[in-house]
Give the backbone structure.
Amino acid sequence: MPEFDRFAPPHLDDPYPLYARLREGPPFFADAFGVWVVTRRADVKAVLSDPARFSSEFLIRTPMSPAPGVAETLATGHPEVFALLNQDPPEHTRVRALVAAAFSPRRVRALTPRVERLAGELVDAIAADGAADLIRSLALPLPLLVICELIGIPRADAPRVRGWIEQLKVLTSFGASDAEQVAAAHGSVEFERYLAALIAQRRAHGRDDLLTDVLRGDLTDLEIISLLITLIFGGHETTTNLIGNALLAALARPEGLPDDPDDVIERTLRADPPVQGTFRRTVADTELGGAPIPAGAQLYAALGAANHDPDGSAEPHLAFGRGIHYCVGAQLARVEARIALRTLATRLPGLRAADGFRVSYPANLLHRGPIRLAATWPVP
Ligand code: HEM
């Protein structure tokens, strides 16, 4: 069995040579993570394209103490942390139809001037300083403010939402202490209560926002809460990391940031995707790329590895997944990244990485993006 020491140096900073070696063999079981690692493009595609064989209902459960009303429903078969992402057909199909309508190109287009305004405000706030961490001052707040606005969460509440997301991260990752988990569980109950109150408000007074659209469907409040959490969680750090990875790529060029960043963004999605992999569970004993895999096994479909497979270099990248779970926010993410890079290029001419800046990445199988990005620019 090959070793999947993904968080050891030098793989944490640059996993792509490791992926290249792993693609030479079939899927294998990685003890350290308890998952089967799938790296070849054809195998990753097969996994993502066949929800009947590879279920999204994998077994990550939030150990939260549920808010009033939540416990009963959890007990009656709503164990997923994330609606949509962790659902299979037919439930997935029903929820997805609702969300896809709410994420219509019209709504994303209508959001563009607001994304521009928000990016402008964030960049203007640091312009006179001549130096900043671009993750903290732009890449992190921009997608958060955008997803809040899209859903219809008041801007003043964005910092609290950010805190709750941090707590959800504690609950969905390994290694947190009991005390941290308890604090995070309290936070996530608070988050649910907050969202329940928002839903009640919106039921009383509809507006032109995503939440109002979703309320027109036949989802229960609990399903809507779960869906909002998916959207907030899924639409935030992913986009932060796309902006971060694309900025790193752009700033590495001698000419710096391009006026038209679309090309850098698309190449980043292929070469250094913000979501490095996604999980599935085998429904029955199966065979994949020459490896026999037992029923109930967890699979890690390594999108970052598949994107570099020379066998698929002429095909579309898999950064947003593929098949029925294809990222519903892909268009929005591209719009946000484009506006972030363009705003920096036009408002901070001469922007470059700070002298001595060294990029580092969190140890995470899902997300990949720079923890900080120290940059400088000339101030008149
Ligand atoms: C699904 C990546 C931005 C919402 C996915 C999947 C990937 C992905 C790989 C498929 C997961 C799977 O098959 O298991 C990304 C990346 C983003 C991004 C790289 C940014 C660069 C967003 C944004 C939103 C969003 C901005 C929402 C505002 C979702 C949702 C799903 C999803 C709801 C689940 C769709 C389903 O299960 O049907 N995303 N995403 N994502 N994404 Fe994104």
